[in-house]
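Extended Data, record 3-phosphoshikimate 1-carboxyvinyltransferase
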Amino acid sequence: MESSPSSQYLSGLLMAAPLMRNGLQARAPGLVSRPYVDMTLALMRRYGADVAEEGDGNLRVEPGAYTATDTVVEPDASTASYVFAAAAVTGRTVTVPGLGTGSLQGDLRFVEILAKAGAEVRVDAAATTVTGTGRLRGGFAVDMGDISDTFMTLAAIAPLADAPITIHGIGHARLKESDRIAAVAQNLRACGIDTAQGADWITVHPARLAPHASPVTAIIASRWPSRCSASPCLARSPWMTRAVWRRRSRDSTTSCGGSSPGTNCLPVKMS
């Protein structure tokens, strides 16, 4: 099964496989976002599915049935990336309980990138905590192919770094609900940020506006999914405090420091 555009198709087949008469044997050349498939397999096993990973990369699911069991649903690591990033750029501390070392979600690796950018990160069995310095270190390139749902979060705070940040390995993000790379570049340019992009990468340059310049009003094209509109909220700074969200034919205005369209609620502790 061709899996270079997305891992979602494979995950869907895998989840249905135990209920198939003959089970399923699948091979996924070009698989992207492998952590999402790993999470699917782990949960299938938790519910009693017989899943085997063979040495040649094949996945085999035996016919059978799922067994009901109690499960604690983790906070969403993709959504948590927004509050973790906000802590990194503001010098605050954010803790997300229930998202710790035992997490099945690959997107929790986003905090490793924040650590590379200078934030203090602590992950234990019960929670993940990010403490920022109020300054963001850039000057690096990072492959986010396995955690591409969070690349827009990093791109949104990259203008606040002291040097350019390049995100690569994300070509499949152009094939989502919208071209996410193009959407990010468009919204950053609307805020006066220089960007460059290629087939599977984007480079975001630091903001060059004076700290005490007048606030910039930016027209934000909030394409699907909601991450395209939520991410720009993180770019709040003395030179950008207001944004106009444009979705289809309706416009609305919101402060970049407040809630954004489509964001989810998290059990967050902020200090």
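Summary. The two ends are 47 Å apart (CA to CA).
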